[in-house]
Amino acid sequence: MECRCSPLRIFLLFTGAGFVLTTLYSLNAEDLAIHTQILSHMVTKIPGTLDTVSEQAPDEMKMREMLHVGSARSPSADVNKGRLPINEDNVIEDNDLRTSKDFPPLKASSRTNLLIVTYMRSGSSLTGNMFEMDPSVFYVFEPLHDLKWYKWGENINIQYLMSRSNIMRESIYTKVAGKTIRRIFRCDFPKLDIATLTQYHMQSSPHTKSYHTCLQRYPGVLNILKCMPILYNRCKAAKVGVIKTIEFPITAAKDLATKDRTLKVLHLIRDPRATLLSQVSHGRFSWDAIEEESSKYCKKVLEDVQVTRQWYMESQTRIKILFYEDLCQNPSSEVEELYKFVGLNYTEDTEIGIKKLTSAASDRTCVICTQRKSSKKAAERWRGKIRIEYVRIIDRNCMKLYRYVGYLPVENLDVLRNVSHPLRIITHV
């Protein structure tokens, strides 16, 4: 029989079938059998490809029905196959094919949200931990991580769960990142891109870790909606939403806060010498590039601080600046002020949690670990590691920033190594 469809339609049909196979590659045998039926149905339609949308609609409905029937296994059956149960209020429903209507976004004015804006290796993990210990908070750890890497690509296609794809370019990164932040704060997860919904940092917050665990147990793009109730219910129940970001422009944060009166911003700063040392240690750049990198970094931070200062003069209730060194030196008093800023109650449990993080029995050593025997000593540890010649380069390139925020240049090696000698004077930025 001669095929009545054009070569283009055949190509598109096989491309669609290939996409389904790719996204569902990780389903178990029972799922695979169901979706093989669907693909077989699609392929057998090639000789008689229909020419009208109305004629194609019944086939789409049949496929949906097959998906629905195929997902009707009981959760206990999976447990019996060796899978561990998801203990998150039994929100996983295998017999529901969920849609975005199952996750209505919060109203913009329904709660307070806090955006932590800072730079790589500047103490944001510890700062975020101070909020995540409160049971009324929904905390998301660096949700822009994958988007940030995409912006350096060449017209990378960003795939969304419930909407059309978007071509990522560096010129539109801030706009896309801002939308992502707003959607997370409103618990509007179906409108997020797939990379953000599945990135590994979802395991870095206790409030998103159960969702990440669910994705690990039920892999595949279609299963994102199966696991999404865990994320959505935790977000919706929170009194305060908190997001920590790295290198999101403070000007863009101010624009977000202008559009959302419930959004507050915390601008976190750390001694540039400590930050740059840590960035080198974690492979951001090498010491050979310290001249250029220190100049670029301190210029960026100075510009941000100037915006923050002007914003603070306009509205002290919307923006707050925090020095990492202050948080480490006086964690209890600083966290109490942070809690007041967002309307959280500072309780005895909060105090206990702070002591566990800042006065623990031993240090935890990993890239984002924050538990320390002494947060005071941890904040000054860089002074015993960095070489004096690198310090002098940083001091020279960062002098304008120092004068603005109170950091002091190092006179000699003895001053650098003597942690009792302060390298910052208290200023009111």
Short description:
With about 425 residues, this protein is an alpha/beta fold.
Q: What can you see in these coordinates?
A:
With 429 residues, the chain is of the alpha/beta class. It folds into three domains: 7-70, no CATH class; 88-102 and 145-235, no CATH class; 113-136 and 239-429, Rossmann fold (3-Layer(aba) Sandwich). Helices cover 50% and strands 9% of the residues. The chain is built from 20 helices and seven strands. It has helices at 7-23, 29-44, 53-70, 75-80, 124-132, 145-150, 173-185, 194-198, 209-217, 224-237, 250-259, 272-281, 290-314, 324-329, 331-342, 348-358, 375-380, 388-397, 399-405, 413-417, and strands at residues 112-118, 137-141, 156-158, 166-168, 240-246, 263-269, 319-323. The strands form two sheets. Strands 2-5-1-6-7 form a five-stranded parallel sheet, with helices on both faces. Strands 3-4 form a two-stranded antiparallel sheet. A hairpin with a 7-residue loop joins strand 3 and strand 4. Helix 2 (29-44) runs antiparallel to helix 3. The radius of gyration is 26 Å and the shape is globular. It starts with 6 loop residues before the first helix and ends in a 12-residue tail after the last helix. The relative contact order is 0.11.
